[in-house]
Fold this protein.
Amino acid sequence: MMTKTRIALIGGGPSALSILKKALCFCGKQLDDNDSVTGRASPHLTFDIFERNTALGKGMPYSKDGASWEHITNISSDELAPFDETLLEWLRQQSTEYLAKYQIEKTKLHEKHVVPRLLFGEYLQAQFCELIGRCRAAGIHVNVHLQCNVLDIKPSTADENSLERNNSPERLGSLERNNSLERNHSPERGSSPERGSSPERGSSPERQTSPEPVTSESHTGINILTDNGWVTGFDKVVICTGHIWPKTHEGKVKGYFDSPYPPTKLQQKYNHTIALKGSSLTAIDAIRTLSEANGEFYQTDNQLKYRLFDDVPDFKIIMHSLEGLLPNIRFHLDDPLVSDEGMLSEQEIAQHRADNDGFLSLDFIFERNFKAALNKLDTVFYQKIANKNIESFCQWMLDSRKAYEPFTLFKIEYLQAEQSIKQQSTLQWKEALALLSFTINHPAKYFSAEDTLRLRNHLLPLIGLMIANIPQSSAAQLLALHDSGVLDIIAVDSSSRLEIEGDGDFQFHFKDEDNKPTVNTYKTFIDCTGQKSLPIDAFPFKSMFAGAEPLVAKVRFKDKYQGKKHLVETPNSVCKGSDNEYYLETGGFAINDDFQPILANGSLNERYFVMAVPYISGFNPDYSGFDFCDQVAELIVTKLGESKEQ
């Protein structure tokens, strides 16, 4: 007999979308294997999706929480792992008038088109709703709880489950499920802040009929506390909460912003210089928001220009960036779908670890997954780096970029990327570097502490620049802002720091190009360094690990002498274990290869899966993007599929 496995997805953004997509594929394979004559599987997986906002699929980046109409995606239709309907196919189904509200000409659509993030959010919502319909048609129960804040997650005992049964899904469920779906009539659906209305098709989950609730009278489980009460009886929980932007000084110190999100908080006029920390995609978001609020872009002689509004003549933005470097610009990809085909196999990695005291060598993966791959793609470039290790390669790349003034190099790379797109010719080494980043992510937990530090100090900063891939339109705006004198960049090093003197009084300390200590004073400061890793203490669902403390992610030093040395130098991040080995704490949850949290006693908590990016970066340093969601969802659903009763 096969019992139902009830799964709660905490968060209804792109991660949850990927989980549900993989679950449907899994159950479809079950149907094929069973050769059912009914056309319906008998899936044992059932899902409740808890989303605090009014719509599914969008998450933070593609909703008003993370975007306004001016923000553009950095991913095109052909770079997305396929849904039932591609982005291009969905766009072509929308009316000319609807697309025009997002400044898109329907006749010029193509698979390389990058679209406004709010429009992309509508696409994701439409795919989620269609997917729910397909799941239900296949016999997979899916319950949706919109505008539902999850406050805590608590494993139950038999007594607790009995007491809380009055507020179970069977009690709350029917009204909650139906009403939550109908909330998608919210004005947010299908609209941008000032433009846009709902598309004509494919985005209305309320058209789906809620299934009968799955009974769970006979077992204990996991209870979800929401602002509507308890929902009980789950077997598994997947944390899909996505980006989190905790506030440290924002709201307490006037003029300080911990992030540029939501962008509405920055949509005002500033007649002074604004300091941004960072030059990543997060900084690009802040720049687009601020520039739209304080001036306007216009075309003259086929060139984009920018002019300030008359009442803010002193408006200016200064980025403070490590080494004064700007991110990479989107170029043509020969292989738009990220794949580890041709890379080190799981068997090769396992054998390498078996021969190296359990460690995976960063040099080994760099040689095999980057240099060897590049030798097949671009022998000319390969010859330049054939004898370089990670440190010398990264330094060579950074030195070659620092040979130019930042915006001069940015203009050169803008023209190179433009030619790459027009001629459909890739930049092989950049594509290979992006693939290296993807293939490093999952096995990074097996690096030694020494290699983890090398990865953080050398390779990741370079990768962060090279795979940012900002859209052409954003690059054109940055160049126009710089040409108008509104945007500039200052090179800083890791010793730079901010001192908060009071409201609207921020002193940024750094060393200039002559290594001379310098202090700049600003009235407004925005932290644009992107999503930060968060400690387990910041995890909001405190009861999840009641009586079973989770293990903090940490990696062992291969050389005890180095471990002891780092313990003296950085005692807050290095510890000595009960096994007398030295460990570098990398932060967040220690998770296994299936994204299940490891407990402090060394055992697994097999009830939970964590794919919330801020809490797993200690073991997954490159965790962004739809390729990550797709890869992790495959692993989690495969593991969930093993939970059926034999």
Summary: The chain has a mean pLDDT of 86. Residues 14-34 form the longest helix (21 residues). Residues 215 and 420 are 56 Å apart (CA to CA). Residues 536-615 form one domain.
